[in-house]
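Hi D.,

Good news: the full-assembly prediction came through. Inputs first.
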Amino acid sequence: MKKWVYIKDVSKFVGEEVLIKGWVYNKRDVGRIKFILVRDGTGIIQSTIWSKDPDCPIFEKFDKLTQESSIKVSGKVKKDERAPGGYELEITDFEIIQIAEEYPISKKNHGTAFLMENRHLWLRSIRQTAILKIRASIIKSIRDFMDKEGFILTDSPILTANAVEGTTTLFETSYFDEKAYLSQSGQLYAEASALALAKTYTFGPTFRAEKSKTRRHLIEFWMMEPEWAYAELDDVFILAQNLLVYIVERVLEERSEELKILERDTKPLEEIKAPFPKIKYDEAFEILKKSGKSQTSYGSDFGGTDETIISEKFNKPLAITHYPSNIKAFYMQPDQDNPDKILCMDILAPEGYGEIIGGSQRIHDLDLLLKKINEHKLSKEVFKWYIDLRKYGSVPHSGFGLGVERTVAWICHLPHIRETIPFPRMLYNLYP
RNA sequence: UCCCCAGUAGCUCAAUUGGCAGAGCGGGUGGCUGUUAACCACUAGGUUCGCGGUUCAAAUCCGUGCUGGGGAGCCA
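Then the structure:
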């Protein structure tokens, strides 16, 4: 019985007979010599079949193979400069598990619509598997960093009775006889956990029924949200900065192969070092005004193009703080010295990728919170438990949300967020 | 929700701007002893997104619907 090995490990088995279980990525027939490119999820290896006899049984089996047919291949591992990747498998025999029907995804060009329709198959391409591996590394590095910093993972519920952001973007569902909503953010529950554990974070999917059709929006996306008792805005800014530096370092270290497949220029990533620049809304507005390229009026939120104009001035992630209070969420703490401004931060990724982190210091004063809930016409009933947090040992606390998919898009330098998650949920697009 | 663009073979696209619907890839058959999205020859494959209109004649022009793409607003 030959040893089952994965392609990523073949270099350790040069000269030995091994068994590879995989799929036909491509085949080439050059008469007496045939090539099968076998992929097994960890890599691709060129495999060769040779015989003097044009009618030998293994050639007949080869002829049946179609793209993506599943096969178990036995052969001897050889070092060979002519093979892509430098190693080659000299096939002694192979077993056909299933002959694939005509595979819809060919080696030539496809349009986005067609690829999205076949997302379940598109995932098998080298490029897509590289992105998924980088996504996995980013998630692992986020978890490792937060754990190392002493934050406790606490999960927030997906089904909730209350909104966090504007009520227009909620997915409504039924909860027996009550109405329920899919979570837009785990933050409010994380605040409760933070008062229990001091340093916490939630990690999970969030849902926004926004009718937005852009390269940076998903209907279902993943967020990591730390919440930290007694922390002020500056504390979470430093946390966010160190987190991003750590993620980039880890990806450069673990996934250089995948970044190469994506043809990602790693120089801009190598420049991601602390400290990150931090400017106030007013300064950001000045930059916009001077650029002459923006129509945004003072006091309004920045648009996607505005973010690009501002972040192009810096080669690192940039924090913009102290936004006007009327354009931010109800739970955000006003600045003591300037109550029209909010102790909040948006962190914009470089290279035009825009906002990947949004955070703030939270209101800890009971009366102020009640006033804000009133102003935003929110229900005191459903928020009773949240208001309670300000009655029993309330303290200043802060947190932020990091969008996983936007982070993946930036680090991989992807033109569109749809490739950052295995099965993106987008506007009017629930299949596959 | 608004603005712009597109829909032709399984896929990616052509079609002299209103005059015989075609090529590459993929499929099939055959050839080739080192290919790198192999190559060469032959071959099958069409309700030109649906409906209505203009015209001697519509893939092409007009109207309408559907689907998809790009962007805006909003956001991570």
